From TrEMBL:
Residues 190-243 are annotated as: Disordered. Residues 59-178 form the Fe-S metabolism associated domain. InterPro entries: BolA, BolA-like_sf, Fe-S_metab-assoc_dom. This is Fe-S metabolism associated domain-containing protein. PANTHER family: PTHR46230, SUFE-LIKE PROTEIN 1, CHLOROPLASTIC_MITOCHONDRIAL. Coiled coil: none annotated. Residues 224-237 have a biased composition (Low complexity).
Length: 331
């Protein structure tokens, strides 16, 4: 027998015909809809790891409870974003996967901090771009690369944006991170060009000598330098962090050649030096078969991933030269 399902109004009518001494009333009990799925707070990147300006923006949006007010705040950001010069509205700078047209330009200053400019043909999308431009500009490349897309949850904009807008926002962040990494790679290659997202007047990569010495220390400058070939291990010229970096890369990438140079002395007084025993900046030159078939961007991401723990605990900047054996032999 099938269960008998009756509406509340029908139940009330039936009850009225029954010989009860007291009247019976029916009340509709409100039910709660399941909350929308979102990332657990334990899975989100801690806000204190985000750039200071981005933290300020997030706190501002969190202080606004009404979705409409958040939307208006976003529109305000868009209206106040400086327009991007037409010469930078190129295919290379265009964000793919956005409902509206969006362009992002990036460039580095002399300290290798990345700055952004952006524009869009939609005020709302321009507001999203402005949020990222204001939140990320002026920060070190490594810090920008460590930003997890889930920070968007902290903004609380999900109810104000369509799914396609949310996806476009994440695509903007991905393009900004990719441009930052590409700029750093160009800087390490000694490319002094400027303009469509390049660094100007940079000489970050020093020539590497073909020295037979395994390890050396420049006593005048305080530079620690360690090199090894074919598995030879010598790290006497490095401090504790430099030694850890060298051992980690040797273990995971089995390099044919590896040179790690501590150049933290060049950045004395830099923000990254505080609280990290002075070992904050390193030059790394590595030759490994693990780089075969990988682009420069993927090689650098691989190294950053291996050294993520160091980056989280005081390592401020890496200057990386990553080559395959065939690339070295071709020279």
């Amino acid at each position: 027998m099938k269960p008998l399902l009756l509406e509340i109004s029908e139940l009330a009518s039936i009850a009225a015909t029954l010989p009860f001494s007291r009247s019976i009333s029916f009340q509709k009990i409100p039910t709660k809809s399941p909350p929308p799925l979102q990332a657990s707070s334990t899975q989100l990147q801690p806000m204190e790891e985000l750039p200071p300006k981005l933290q300020e923006i997030i706190k501002l949006f969190q202080s606004v409870e009404e979705p409409k007010a958040k939307y208006e705040q976003l529109m305000f950001y868009g209206k106040n974003l400086n327009p991007l010069d037409t010469q930078f509205k190129t295919r290379e700078n265009k964000v793919e996967g956005c409902v509206s047209q969006v362009w992002v330009r990036a460039y580095l200053d002399q300290d290798k901090n990345v700055f952004y400019q952006a524009d869009s043909d939609s005020v709302l999308t321009k507001g999203l771009a402005a949020l990222l431009v204001n939140g990320l500009s002026g920060r070190p490349v490594q810090e920008v690369l460590r930003i997890s897309p889930d920070f968007a949850v902290l903004l609380g904009l999900q109810q104000s944006l369509t799914p396609s807008r949310n996806n476009g926002f994440l695509n903007m962040l991905k393009l900004m991170q990719r441009k930052a990494l590409e700029l750093l790679i160009e800087a390490e290659k000694g490319d002094g060009s400027s303009g469509n997202g390049q660094i100007a007047n940079d000489n970050s990569e020093k020539p590497v000598e073909n020295s037979t010495s395994d390890s050396k220390v420049d006593e005048d400058s305080g530079v620690g330098f360690s090199s090894s070939k074919n598995g030879e291990d010598s790290s006497s010229g490095l401090g504790s962090r430099g030694t850890r970096i060298k051992k980690k890369l040797e273990k995971e990438l089995s390099p044919i050649e590896l040179e790690v140079e501590d150049v933290s002395y060049q950045h004395a007084g830099h923000a990254g030096v505080r609280g990290s025993d002075g070992e904050t900046h390193f030059n790394v030159r590595i030759v490994s078969k693990e780089f075969e078939g990988k682009s420069l961007v993927k090689r650098h991401r691989l190294i950053y991933g291996l050294l993520d723990e160091e980056l989280q605990t005081g390592l401020h900047a890496l200057s990386i030269v990553a080559k395959t054996p065939s690339e070295v032999e071709a020279k």
